[in-house]
Amino acid sequence: MSDHLFSPISIGPLTLANRIIMGSMHTGLDHSDDPFGRLAAFYKERADGGVALIVTGGVSPNEYGLISPGSMKLTHLEQVSDYKIITDTVHQSGSKIILQILHAGRYAKQENLVAPSAIRSPISKFEPKEMSEQDILSTIEDFVNCASLAQQAGFDGIELLGSEGYCLNEFTALRTNHRTDRWGGSLENRARFPLEIIRAIRHKLGSQFFIQYRMSVLELVEGGWNIEEAQQFAKLLESTGVDLINTGIGWHEASIPTIAMQVPRAAFSWATGKIKQVVNIPVAAANRINTAEVADNIIKQGDADMVYLSRPFLADPDFVIKAQQNRNDEINTCIACNQSCLDNLFNFKTVSCLVNPRACHETLMPKLPTTSSPKNIAVIGAGAAGLSFAIEAKKLGHNITLYDAAADIGGQLAHARKVPGKEEFDELLRYFNVMLEKHQVTTQLNTHVTVEQLESANYDSIVLATGVIPRRLDIPGIDNSNVFSYEEAFRAPEKIGQTVVIIGAGGIGYDMAEFLTHQDDDKNPIDSFNAHWGIDPEGLQPGSLVSSIQPTMKSSREVTLLQRKAGKFGRSLGKTTGWIHQAELHKRGVKLLGDLRYLKIDDAGLHIEKDGETQLLAADSIIICAGQESRDELAEPLNNLATSVYRIGGVKEVRELDAAQAIRDGSKLAYKLSIQ
Ligand code: NAP
Ligand code: SF4
């Protein structure tokens, strides 16, 4: 099926068995007690899963380029043996691995930052020092030294990171390069720094050393280049001796989403195609490629020779082998939520994955053999926690019976998938369904299991995963017919009127506001996305941004989102995706109102107190999105049984609960019960 993806390719000195590159990812493991051991274990599982070429997370060539204090660097011979732990492990598993050299430039989160010009980035605290001629020359030497050490450490080559607004990209962009010497001004001058680095590495390490360059194609910021300049630069890369061009989309400071769930799959492969048109070396496409079908199609339609997938390898280390064996429906698909990967990273935590909590925790949760003492376990609740436990425990050899009162699996996930832009949750439900069937988990849906039934079945253990119910509020008039819980509104949106107030502005309040103000259009999803976010679909404008003001998408429904607290809205949203939700609500004309008290509800709407005065917020419908409570009616009766009872997910702890926590809880318990 994925014929194009699995045709071998020779690139410079490398021959690769397939067209899939595992892209560079920061894992946060550099800050762990055993960075190289844990990274080696992380890469090994992916190499064992059949990936042809792995690119490491970014490693700085000197102190100035460090992304943050204590992050990875390769600057001295003494460090080579550490990196060799990684390369030896990956090679033993039959894959190739290259080192990504990343100089953070003005994005460095440390005080010694440098850049072509002293211009602070809008997302940074510190202003960079402008590099002198001598700084530039010594940085070129540092890149050569780093590449040479990488070769000594056994890496099969390097990737130079020249996209997303990091140092090399800062030199090529007029936005950040205001120099008037030979390193600034014309494209030829702005390109000089990266090209000199490539020449110097080639000179030192010869033609058989593999060099991949990740260049910026769509910059998506003012003062960025357009596709024509990007094409010229690609030709310069080719003539300077680069073996493969990888394509980066959008700077980190761009206000257009480039990898989040709201971005359609393969949304930017057309831009990679424009680079491929002008060079003869292989080109790789990246961003929102999360299934084998999408990846195969990009190559088939000629937009790229390779695909560069990063987060999908957090979600499933066996992505390649499953795709190769036509087991695509068994792939645990990255849903592009960013919740446990990038959000963790930006919260200074080790990266993991919402759908695969073992990611980056391979040494802490090593693969277990099938248990020698299988238990008969009842799992009550087929939401994220119950499903995760049932599947993992069955894989480890336990006998599982999974009960749910609903007709379908999913629990709260079934609401998430209805939110516009969150359709990827369907993949998670598909994965769970396929795994239940593959591992033959006995599943009893439409079953309101009773304590008596559980007692008479004589289970060894019972896992309570009954999740949450919407919080009921104690506001006079709460039982009025114009009041709906978020579950009722997601289930029957046709009952919701034109003027709506939403009580509660957490994740679900935002989701509800998007759900109720969404307007379908008849464009294809990529055209619609480009128009919505102001991307020039031809890439001819500077930064590939359309010059005219974007049309607003004001909804015909009037929605007001409320919170009691004063201050900023959206604090509980994801670190890397919250701004997208905020922008969406703004475009749709949703009003935000905070610092208030709820007084009563009647047929006219919601009465509140704000600034010491009583106000009526006229509304046809009032939707309660004020958090949840544990659904724990079985908890107490189960305590009277002799069987051991475990609680996971929302029934255990409702505070801070999300799908990632629920899935992690389920996996951890399955693991714990299997090592006892
Ligand atoms: P939440 O994030 O805790 O938000 C609850 C909202 O209700 C807050 O705005 C809170 O603000 C209000 N509230 C709390 N108690 C109230 C009360 N007694 N009366 C009136 N208002 C009350 O909960 P959620 O929205 O239900 O989300 C549940 C979980 O799912 C969270 O962990 C969330 O992160 C996750 N989730 C995230 C997303 C996302 O990031 N896009 C989407 C869906 C769900 P005030 O107290 O100021 O009124
Ligand atoms: Fe993908 Fe979400 Fe996992 Fe990150 S946490 S790898 S975005 S599924």
Write a structural description.
This protein is α/β, with parallel strands linked by helices and 676 residues long. It has three domains: 9-336, TIM Barrel (Alpha-Beta Barrel), CATH 3.20.20.70; 376-469 and 629-675, 3-Layer(aba) Sandwich (Rossmann fold), CATH 3.40.50; 483-519 and 555-626, FAD/NAD(P)-binding domain (3-Layer(bba) Sandwich), CATH 3.50.50.60. Helix content is 32%, strand content 18%. It contains 22 helices and 27 strands. An eight-stranded parallel beta barrel has the order 3-4-5-8-9-10-11-12, surrounded by six helices. Strands 15-14-13-16-27 form a five-stranded parallel beta sheet. α1 runs parallel beside α2, α3 (133-152) runs parallel beside α6 and α13 (384-395) packs parallel to α22 (659-675). The longest helix has 20 residues, at 133-152. It is globular. The two termini are 42 Å apart. It binds NADP nicotinamide-adenine-dinucleotide phosphate and iron/sulfur cluster. Iron/sulfur cluster (SF4) is lined by residues 311, 314-315, 334-341, 353-355.
